Amino acid sequence: MKSFERLLEHQLKDDSSVPYPDFDAMWSRIESCGMREECGSRPTELSGIPGKGLRSRKILVACSLTALLAAAPVYAAFHYDWSSLLKFRSGVQSAIAQNLGQSIERSVTKEGVTLTLHTAVVDENRTVILYSLDIGERPSPIFNFNSMKLIDDAGNVIEGRYSDQRWDAANHRFTGYFEADWAPQSDTAHVRFIAEGLQLLAEAEKEIPFDSQNPKKQVFELNQDKLQKIELNSILQNPDKLMISSAVTFQDPAAKQWAYPELVAYKDGTPVKQLPGGAFGTPGENGEYTAVQYFKESDLSASGTTYKLQYMKETDRIQEQWSFPLVLNKKQMESGTIRQTLDLPLGEGEEATTLEQIVITPTQIRLIASHQQRFGAFPFTEYQLEVAGKVINSPTAWFGEEGNPHLSTLRIERPAQLSITKDTPVFLIGKHEVINHDGGDIPTVLTNISEQKQSITTRVGGYPVQWTYYMKDNDLYVETESSDPDFGGINQTYIGKGKERIIGKPLTINFVGDGDNKAVDVYKNFKGTKASVYIFFYSVEDVEKEMRIRLLP
Predict the structure, then answer these.
(1) Distance CA 480, CA 309 (A)
(2) Which is an annotated Pfam family here (predicted)?
(3) What is the pLDDT along the chain (553 residues), one digit of tens a residue?
(4) What SS3 string covers 466-504?
(5) How far apart are CA 50 and CA 136, in angstroms?
(6) What angle do CA 169, 122, 45 make, to 5 degrees?
């Protein structure tokens, strides 16, 4: 069930338990995993009204044989509890509780699948649309739309996120939400909501005769469910930590969007627990789906260890479009919205950042920052807001603004019952400082390169760094790490200068501030016995460093 859990992680974002229908006891194996909307023309046909026996008995108003249930209003009384779905969207929950949501309640049915839009929450920071999906008698427990978007009256496409889904057992259908970091420029906006390309998915697996004790690259043909082959590589990182890298190639590149393949180790029929630090879905050089996983070497070296590749396969596809003309309105949110220009400096020199503006709406607090450099980095890994003495510990991260590499945005969910005015004291708190430094022009020279592992120690920014290098399957591997925990790590290396420069491919996936400064770069088909290796940049950390900046008043 690992690939299924991986899909749930992608869809449910850290939720630990999901109530779901019992499709042949499949789920028993899972441990965790205000204003009426206006439309142009009023449809004449009524959507299915479920009664007892929701799927088997539907009341249909048969007015036409060709156009059934097109954007029909929903007259049946369904009550939805959105709290589980919106667990990490407290601001949206609060707006709905205050009746600040815009009622839609319209349905479209295509090939027996009914998509219903229930409520829109629109303010100056974002647009959220709550929906439900009835897939009829189809047995698949997982679905995925290939596309879900808004299109404004000028034809501009507004992309959004729509991966969060829940099973509503009371109403016997799925619920979900579409969220876009977009708001109407005026009080109202005429848009069209479109969902298309519905996929139904199921879990599949294939046994892999992988030998984790074999240091050579191993390739296995798959040739099923649009998967072509898998390439596996094991590297012993320390006496009892084994890294396994994988790259899955697809017969149909589109399958990469839903397969979520993952290697699962079993010992005597029980899944072997993975160590933290793994990463999935990094694109390979030729479109492969790559992953890095860590295990205790002792768990895999014991006899009776077997391996399976688990993934999701497509069982059905409905190539239809569910389309809804909408008029979105943010006017009732305006009275609770605060906009304030800041112009507050953060950092110095090339890393300089300026906090430009704060926008507080009934659902979200948004900070906008500008950078001297394109795609500028922030000096801290953790950010909090303190509002009237209350610290908001919501998960936070800065994200780039599409179309402007010099802007970034921090979005924080507004907790329920949190009162904010222009006179409310608001502070931005930063913790765990990470500063990036240019790697410079002095190379580390690797000599006598062979299949034998060799190590040398140099100083990088005053910190000791051990370089371990060796050949494997005609590729050069370069590992770097430091015994000093204040050294954040080397992001990437390259060999040579100018036109002769060869850029190393990072094999490990390290996250800023994760406490792991070991990195591995691979140089494919390397020729020679000597290499001058340069560093793009490295980072230095100060876990105890904090920052506190007043934003309001």
Answers:
(1) 30
(2) DUF4179
(3) 455 444 544 444 333 333 333 333 333 333 333 333 333 332 322 233 233 232 232 222 223 322 333 344 443 445 778 888 898 899 999 999 888 899 999 999 999 999 999 999 999 999 999 999 998 887 766 888 989 999 999 999 999 998 778 888 888 888 999 999 999 989 999 999 999 999 989 999 999 999 998 988 999 999 999 999 999 999 888 888 899 999 999 999 989 989 999 999 999 889 999 998 888 988 888 889 999 999 999 999 877 899 999 999 999 899 999 999 999 999 888 888 999 999 998 766 556 788 999 999 999 999 998 887 777 777 888 889 999 999 987 666 677 777 778 888 889 999 888 889 999 999 999 889 888 889 999 999 999 999 999 999 999 999 999 999 999 989 999 999 999 999 999 999 999 888 889 999 998 877 776 778 999 999 999 999 999 999 999 999 999 999 899 999 9
(4) EEEEEEECCEEEEEEECCCCCEEEECCEEECCHHHCEEC
(5) 11
(6) 60
Tokens, residue 123: 């303010």
Count of C-beta atoms within a 10 Å radius of residue 333: 22
Amino acid at 509: I
Residue 424, both tokens = 């409310």
- What is the spatial distance between Cα 393 and Cα 75, in angstroms, rounded to a whole number? 40
Q: Which two tokens stand for residue 325?
A: 């003309």
21-27-32 Cα angle (round to 5):
115
Instruction: Report the distance separating Cα 107 and Cα 194, nearest Å.
Output: 12
For every residue of 64-99, which 3-state class applies, written as one string? Answer: CCCCCCCCEECCCCCCCCCCCCCCCCHHHHHHHHCC
Cβ(129)–Cβ(119) below 8 Å: yes
Provide the edge-to-edge strand list for the sheet that holds 531-535.
444-446, 531-535, 493-495, 502-503
- The CA distance from 178 to 159, in Å, is 9
Sign of CA dihedral 133, 138, 142, 144: negative
Q: What is the DSSP code string of 288-317?
A: -EEEEEEE-HHHHHSTTEEEEEEEEEEEEE
Residue listed under structure tokens 């688990």: 310
Sequence-distant (6+) residues with CB within 8 A of 25 are none
Find tokens 């659902």 and name the residue: 363
Dist CA 114 CA 198 (whole Å): 11
Cα separation, 110 vs 496, in Å, equals 58
Report yes or no on whether pTM surpasses 0.85.
Answer: no
268's tokens? 């005597």
